[in-house]
Design goal:
The protein is of the alpha/beta class. The chain has ten helices and eight strands. It has helices spanning about 15-30, 45-50, 60-65, 100-110, 125-130, 145-160, 175-180, 185-195, 205-215, 225-235, and strands spanning about 5-10, 35-40, 75, 85, 115-120, 135-140, 165-175, 195-205. An eight-stranded mixed sheet has the order 3-4-2-5-1-6-7-8, sandwiched between helices. The two termini are about 30 Å apart.
Length: about 250
């Protein structure tokens, strides 16, 4: 089994990083060892979500440039033993090529049950780098037209990269907002528009955002976290129903 998962979205603001962190935490709860890689050069934020921002001395560009070993660029989440982070560079000039990044990830993967790569939004060069080592992709979207157009673009690009194990995560779903928007007849139309098989619904829950954005993952819990437990089990091949159906 390819244990490398890229989490992507066609546009910013879908909550892709929250999905990446939530899934990583769910795998850790299942006694999996997880490496989370931030590929958003110049805009890194996973160090804040894992409460290790003060500890970061090296990032993935340092590892490939020889400023440190790959292992020295890996930091353990403060409140979640079993979850490690490889941070993105602050400087966009340090963007890594797909071939070099793939070599870096393949060198680290043997130490982990799963490697989760948080891709930058869109289909630019950073996305191509982030997706290059992956065997599976989660495409994160909101149930609205611009997000779904982005999901379609990401799906096509992933196929061009020969990544065919692609699943859809509908994030920040609120039934009342969905009905008020009145763009789609129902959720089936949303899924059909994306053209990707659904694997998870994540409800709109400000408590979840507050927990993750404040680096409190592992210390607090909210009902929306159950969705990520279900997502992790479904990725593992378990036949479990959606934790939230909209």
């Amino acid at each position: 089994m390819n244990n490398i998962i890229v989490v992507a979205s066609g546009k910013g603001g879908t909550g892709k990083s929250t999905v990446s962190v939530g899934l990583a935490a769910a795998f850790v709860k299942q006694n999996k060892k997880v490496l989370l890689i931030d590929c958003d050069c110049g805009m890194r934020g996973l160090d804040l979500m894992l409460d290790v921002e003060e500890e970061i001395l090296f990032d993935c560009s340092d590892a490939v440039c020889g400023n440190c070993t790959a292992e020295e660029a890996v930091y353990t989440a403060k409140n979640l033993k079993g979850l490690d982070l490889l941070a993105a560079p602050f400087d966009t000039d340090n963007e890594i090529s797909p071939s070099v990044f793939r070599q870096l990830v393949f060198g680290l993967r043997e130490n982990y049950d799963y490697v989760i790569i948080d891709s930058p939004a869109g289909v630019g060069s950073g996305f191509a780098t982030a997706a290059s080592p992956a065997g599976m992709a989660l495409v994160v979207t909101n149930a609205e037209p611009t997000g779904l157009r982005g999901a379609q673009k990401i799906r096509r690009k992933l196929s061009e990269l020969d990544i065919n194990d692609i699943r859809l995560v509908i994030n920040r779903f609120d039934r009342r907002q969905f009905e008020a928007l009145d763009c789609y007849e129902d959720i089936d139309e949303v899924i059909d528009t994306a053209g990707i098989q659904l694997i998870a619904f994540v409800p709109m829950d400000m408590r979840l955002s507050a927990i993750i954005q404040n680096g409190l993952l592992g210390l607090n819990w909210c009902p929306a976290m159950t969705v990520f437990d279900c997502l992790a089990k479904r990725i593992e091949g378990a036949r479990v129903p959606l934790a939230f159906k909209g």
